[in-house]
Amino acid sequence: MGNLMTTVKNIATFILLTINFIANGQTFEKTFQGWWASTSWTYDFYKDGTYKRVSFGHYGNTTVNGKYKIERDTITLLTSFKNSDGTVNETYILDKDSMLIDLNLRYDYAPTSKSGQNFYNSKIRLVKYPQIRTDKQSVKSELESVLNLAFNSSIAKQYYHFDKLPKRRLLFADYYNLKANIQIDSVKSIFKTREKISEDFYIEFEDINQNSDRIEIKIKIHGEGVSIWFYYIKKDGQWIAQEPFVSEN
């Protein structure tokens, strides 16, 4: 009986140590590959806590080497991610399907096998607010602030024509879990499901990518035949607008 209890205690201790090891700094030997922007991207992670990212294609033939750590399902790159033109980022997550996901760009990468051809077309994953829910009011407020900056910009305001068309409303199609109060002068936003919108003029969000230091917003203004891509970066606590891109639909 004593030997059995000792064995059980040893197993329990081993499990606890293993859990702690996984949660705090585990490394592994794994390769992930993806394809986006006409470029192949390969991430090699090594047990010694180093990684290598190799690309070839439109973005060029590049190699980035650095160090990383793992905490639960999150891989944090410790070095060499700042000067990569945004193609290498600090935080990645391991999804339940074993995919590697860039939390900044949201592109995913597939684990490779030792046999056969490894080629995967990356997909943009829904891993952040507003595509998924959040309880962080600061995240919601930050996005609402930038949305008001974007929709009150001179670029966007030239397509509303509220002065000439007083019956026109600031109507938005619902977008995932987005909750925001947007106001243009005295005109306040109204959100509806796409199926309930009968007006020709309304605004559709094509994509929102919110990060702590930059936010991208892509919209389509129905009834005006234009799409606008807004890009804001945070500098010294302030959101600074970059040159927006406007295209005709």
In short:
The protein is of the alpha+beta class and 249 residues long.
Helix and strand sequence: HEEEEEEEEHHEEEEEEEE
Residue share in β-strands:
35-45%
Give the rounded overall mean pLDDT: 90
Quickly give the structural class: alpha+beta
- Rg calculated over all Cα atoms: 23 Å
Describe the structure.
With 249 residues, the chain is an alpha+beta fold. The chain contains three helices and 16 strands. The strands form three sheets. The chain has an eight-stranded antiparallel barrel. The chain starts with a helix and ends with a strand. Mean pLDDT is 90; it is low at 2-23.
Characteristic terms for this protein:
16 strands, disordered N terminus, 3 helices, single chain, five-stranded antiparallel β-sheet, 249 residues, elongated, alpha+beta, eight-stranded antiparallel barrel
Task: Annotate the secondary structure layout.
Blueprint: H1 2-23, E1 30-36, E2 39-45, E3 50-57, E4 62-71, E5 74-77, E6 91-94, E7 100-102, E8 108-111, H2 137-151, H3 154-157, E9 170-173, E10 183-184, E11 187-192, E12 202-210, E13 214-222, E14 226-235, E15 238-241, E16 245-248
Parallel strand pairs: 9-11
Antiparallel strand pairs: 1-2, 1-8, 2-3, 3-4, 4-5, 5-6, 6-7, 7-8, 10-11, 12-13, 13-14, 14-15, 14-16
